[in-house]
Design brief:
The chain has 16 helices and 17 strands. The protein is α+β, with helices and mostly antiparallel strands and about 475 residues long. Helices cover about 35% and strands about 25% of the residues. It has 3 domains: about 10-90 and about 170-260, D-Amino Acid Oxidase, subunit A, domain 2 (D-Amino Acid Oxidase, Chain A, domain 2, 2-Layer Sandwich), CATH 3.30.9; about 90-165 and about 270-320, FAD/NAD(P)-binding domain, CATH 3.50.50.60; about 330-470. The strands form 4 sheets. Strands 1, 2, 3, 8, 9, 10, 11, 12 and 13 form a 9-stranded mixed beta sheet that branches. The chain has a 3-stranded antiparallel beta sheet with strand order 4-5-6, with no helix packed on it. A 3-stranded mixed beta sheet has the order 7-15-14. Helix 8 crosses helix 9, helix 11 runs parallel beside helix 14 (about 425-435) and helix 15 packs antiparallel against helix 16. The structure holds flavin-adenine dinucleotide. Flavin-adenine dinucleotide binds near residues 150 and 293. It catalyses: a quinone + sn-glycerol 3-phosphate = dihydroxyacetone phosphate + a quinol.
């Protein structure tokens, strides 16, 4: 299964349970077969030792399935299974993870590229890093270096001048975002396709529809969705919808790359989702492959390997019990959300939105509102978000440029039909005092963002990967990557 999931009781702040309906097309065998699959999934989550956290699956008749998902075509199913999974906003999760590491003493740098390894004989003793923001290079010395560079693993392994021990292939997956009212359903959907599965996932006031799984050997920093990718998703989801979706219903489109360990198969959907750790030369550990859901296991395996090579004792790994920044205190604040709303003058739904995005760190966002009440207002062109969230992204979450805020710290770029362009100037003006931008930099940020959106739209009109990639590359990055 490939759900966007990362459930655990201690991570409640960033993950939430989501119901999924699996429409059955055949009587008899399919219910037994798929039912056994979800029962196993339920059993595995109990045996993980973290408690269930999620309700168990149920079998539904066609009538009951249509009651929870009236937007389905009646002839698209003979019955259904309902099961639960968990969902997380990956970019928010990474931000929390990085801030947690910094609290434990990690030095963190974004827009910093490793351009070479420092060597003493065969041994790697650090890395040479190019500062993409300010220019120039600096050195970082370390007893052990861990290379965790995802789809760039082959390139970073090449920096040691030896053939890597394994290869990573990039598999492109795209998603569409449509407004919630376009699909009449109180549950997410999982549909079988000829190659894999397709999800329809509730996402605030929207649905996310995805995904695809195709090899990608073009520009890795800007995977582009083509017209063919979008058609593929619309065609498959429309097979079960009473009112089909059209291109005009699509608010946002985004594409990402899965780092898969290269194997014998040409089809990326058949490659392993397992990870591997290697120690190609003394002083350098490489970890590659894997999935988001297994990131703590991957991290443990990589760090254990690095620690093993140190000439001193280090205590056993405790990652499993380390809460992320903002997790401790979340439950108590959630219970107090009505009081927080009263205290701050915000609607309780706003407080819930903040708690679900920042956990206990919501108090830091609210401090900004307390010093400047205008930050408690919603953004004019993206009213789901408060102005304070933009300031916070720049002051506390390492956002350096407009697209950091519009595409990753918030999801405005995929949650509005204008893809964030209407709100771009207001957001840039909010970031400006924090980052010391003058009017010229504000104009430059907005202009770059508008060009990026136009290039993405153009790529999504192209028939295939080659032409989509060429169109996407028409917009230069604000800081060359
Ligand atoms: C469409 C889609 C759906 C997915 N669904 C799921 C799912 O449901 N569940 C799940 O568990 N997983 C899912 N995944 C997989 C998951 O997103 C990836 O496994 C995960 O993001 C990989 O993270 P990573 O850090 O290993 O690699 P990446 O995300 O590729 O990150 C590598 C990092 O290395 C940096 N880097 C590269 N070269 C250098 C250099 N020279 N110097 C410094 N930094 C460098 C890059 O900037 C980048 O930040 C999905 C992926 C996609 C695309």
């Amino acid at each position: 299964r490939n759900a966007d999931c990362c459930w655990s009781g201690s991570l409640r702040t960033w993950s939430s349970p989501v119901p999924f309906l699996y429409p059955l097309k055949h009587r008899g065998w399919e219910r037994v077969y798929a039912g056994a699959g979800v029962a196993l999934y339920d059993a595995m989550s109990v045996s993980s030792g973290h408690g269930r956290g999620l309700p168990v699956h149920r079998h539904l008749s066609r009538t009951r399935a249509l009651r929870v998902a009236p937007g389905l075509r009646k002839d698209a199913l003979v019955g259904a299974l309902q099961y639960y999974d968990a969902q997380v906003d990956d970019a928010r999760f990474v931000t929390s993870l990085v801030r947690t590491a910094a609290r434990y003493g990690a030095h963190v740098a974004n827009r910093a590229r490793v351009v070479g390894f420092l060597r003493e004989g065969a041994r790697v003793v650090g890395a040479r890093v190019h500062d993409l923001e300010q220019g120039g290079e600096f050195e970082v010395r370390a007893r052990q270096v861990v290379n965790a560079s995802g789809v760039w693993t082959d390139e970073t392994q090449a920096l040691i001048g030896e053939r890597g021990q394994f290869h990573v292939r990039a598999s492109k997956g795209i998603h569409l975002v449509v407004p919630r009212d376009r699909i009449h359903s109180s549950t997410g959907l999982i549909l079988r396709t000829e190659k894999s599965v397709l999800f329809v996932i509730p996402w605030g006031r929207h649905w996310i529809i995805g995904t695809t799984d195709t090899g990608w050997d073009l520009d890795k920093a800007h995977p582009a969705a083509s017209s063919a990718d979008i058609d593929y998703l619309l065609e498959h989801v429309n097979e079960v919808l009473a009112v089909p979706l059209t291109r005009d219903d699509v608010e946002g489109v985004y594409a990402g790359l899965r780092p898969l360990l290269a194997g014998e198969s040409d089809a990326t959907s058949k490659l392993s989702r397992e990870h591997t750790v290697a120690h190609p030369v003394p002083g350098l550990v490489v970890v590659a492959g894997g999935k988001y859901t297994t990131y703590r296991v991957m991290a443990k395996d990589a760090v254990d390997e690095a620690v093993h090579a140190l000439d001193r004792r280090v205590g056993p790994c405790v990652t499993e019990d380390v809460p992320l920044a903002g997790a401790v205190g979340y439950n108590a604040l959630w219970n107090a959300r009505a009081r927080m709303a009263k205290r701050t003058g915000l609607h309780v739904a706003r407080v819930e939105h903040l708690l679900n995005r920042y956990g206990a760190l919501t108090e830091e966002v609210l401090e900004l509102v307390a010093t400047d009440s205008s930050l408690g207002e919603p953004l004019a062109a993206a009213e789901d978000y408060l102005r304070a969230e933009v300031v916070y992204a720049a002051s506390h979450e390492g956002a350096r440029h407009l697209d950091d805020v519009l595409t990753r710290r918030t999801r405005i770029s995929i949650e509005t039909f204008d893809r964030g362009t209407r709100g771009a100037r207001e957001v840039a003006e909010l970031m400006a005092p924090v980052l010391g931008w003058g009017p010229e930099q504000i104009d430059k940020e907005v202009e770059h963002y508008e060009k990026r959106v136009e290039a993405e739209r153009e790529s999504q009109r192209q028939p295939d990967d080659l032409t989509a990639d060429a169109a996407r590359l028409g917009a230069p990055d604000i800081v060359p990557l």
